[in-house]
Design brief:
nucleotide biosynthesis; nucleotide-binding; five-stranded parallel β-sheet; Thymidylate_kinase; 217 residues; alpha/beta
Length: 217
């Protein structure tokens, strides 16, 4: 596969998706059809259907391991149907969440085991990891306050978890970033949206210069 795979990660309220939308608008005029934007869980019909089940606030009886398995199932379908074909076609794939989310949210947040969830996802992904992961870091208290202020009409099952849950998620992300410094690049998401977007675009252009001109501009 000749394309490049970039995942965007972060705790709830980090502003990851909002920043990603701006970044896509900035890069699209230059990359055109070479740019593929997708998300997890989701990215195609089957994976989106699984997403609806996972995030439905009415599914309060869902077992933690069931949740983790559903994420892995959605991820597998996403890879086969969306990500791998794009990489084989030399596309630059930007994905809103991937395997690190499962490790942080289900492994640490749900406390079912980070290593166990990681191993399960290695099977689901057949070992496919992003070439680059951009992690948007924000303290849990700030992230939750942002959710309650700006996303009152889109709050899902994970958003309503206790502060302790979200702190475990963030701690797991920070540990992953420390353990994988070549792949995971941390961006301070407490900065202004403009500064966050600028920092992320700089990282993308520098690490994927083949998709841009020689000056990286």
């Amino acid at each position: 596969m000749t394309g490049k795979f970039i995942s965007f990660e972060g705790p709830d309220g980090a502003g990851k998706t909002t920043a990603l939308n701006t970044i896509v608008a900035d890069l699209k005029p230059q990359l055109k059809k070479q740019l593929i934007v997708t998300r997890e869980p989701g990215g195609n019909r089957i994976s989106e259907a699984i997403r609806d089940i996972i995030l439905d606030r009415q599914n309060t009886e869902m077992d933690d391991r069931t949740e983790a398995l559903l994420y892995a199932a959605a991820r597998r379908q996403h890879i086969v149907e969306t990500i791998e074909p794009a990489l084989k076609a030399n596309k630059l794939v930007l994905c809103d969440r991937y395997i690190d989310s499962s490790v942080a949210y289900q492994g640490a947040g749900r406390e079912i085991g980070e290593q166990e969830v990681y191993q399960m996802n290695l099977f689901a992904t057949a070992g496919l990891l992003p070439d680059l992961t951009i992690y948007f870091d924000v303290p849990s208290e700030i992230g939750l306050q942002r959710i309650m202020t700006h996303r009152t009409d889109e709050i899902n099952r994970l958003d309503v978890e206790q502060l302790s849950f979200h702190k475990r998620v963030r701690a797991s992300y920070l540990k992953l970033a420390k353990e994988n410094p070549k792949r995971i690049k941390l961006v301070d998401a407490t900065q202004s949206k403009g500064k966050v977007v600028s920092d992320v675009e700089t990282i993308i252009r520098k690490t994927n210069s083949e998709f841009f001109n020689e000056s990286g501009e």
